[in-house]
Amino acid sequence: MFLLNKPKVEVSVDVDGDSYYLGDTIKTRIHMLSQDKLKVRAGSMELACTEEYWKMVSDGKTTRAQKYKRKLFRLKESFLTSTEFSSGMALNERKSLILPVDIPPTIVGKSANISWQLDVKLDIPKMRDIHKKKTLTVLPIANAIPIGMENDIVVSNRILKPSRDGDITLTLDSSQCTAGVTLCGTLETMIKKDISVEGVRVELEVKEKAGVKSSKTIIDKVQLEEKTHFAVGSYKRWKFSLKIPEGTLPSYKISDTSVQWRVKGIINKRLKKDLQVELPISVY
Fold first, then answer.
1. d(CA 120, CA 104)
2. Which of 13, 116, 212, 282 is the most exposed place for a label (fewest CB within 10 A)?
3. 95 is in which domain, residue-wise?
């Protein structure tokens, strides 16, 4: 196997920050210093958004989950055409890239993974190409619904679930939330028969999906009642608050990736199926 020689050249790329909001301008500075006589066919810079997802594959005997990658967005700019460099010759180039507002932000979770990377490439004939890569964090626009997600917004902030043991109702002060806020609500139940319970609680949960890979994480929970007995005809009402952390995963759905949030109210019955109600919310 023939291995191409590595060119004697130093390349670096600097940006004016580590994180950007959708719609921001990324200002870059590319520095190149040749340490030998060198011909560069082309120099380019690519900003790319990559999704990781999982699919089931089979070899006819076993089936397993395998990771794949796909580009959701790419923006390529040229900064150098065919040029011959002498030893010690330097190049300093500045470029600006504008992030569109209708593209995915960075999402790094247990299952969901959407990443952004800047890749500077030097195409050098008969030698190995030079790559300099830098990972960037792209943030969603604060307090804004992502473009293209308008039809996925949760609008209901109340749900009633009846059962033979009792009706359970979950009400939130809002079903559209921003990271860093405290979500308040009430859980109510009207008991239809005598039941013994191990406890009553509410949970804030986020579910991630990347193809066939998925995960659930309880972000916050509140115990509203300990072990007790509810008599037929009794009515119970609990107030609660749940914290949505700063820097948390936003609600999102694109291609094979989704992030979904929900609040669950649970009456844990002793040795029987729980009474449970859940309400989806949107977090941005």
1. 22
2. 212
3. 9-139
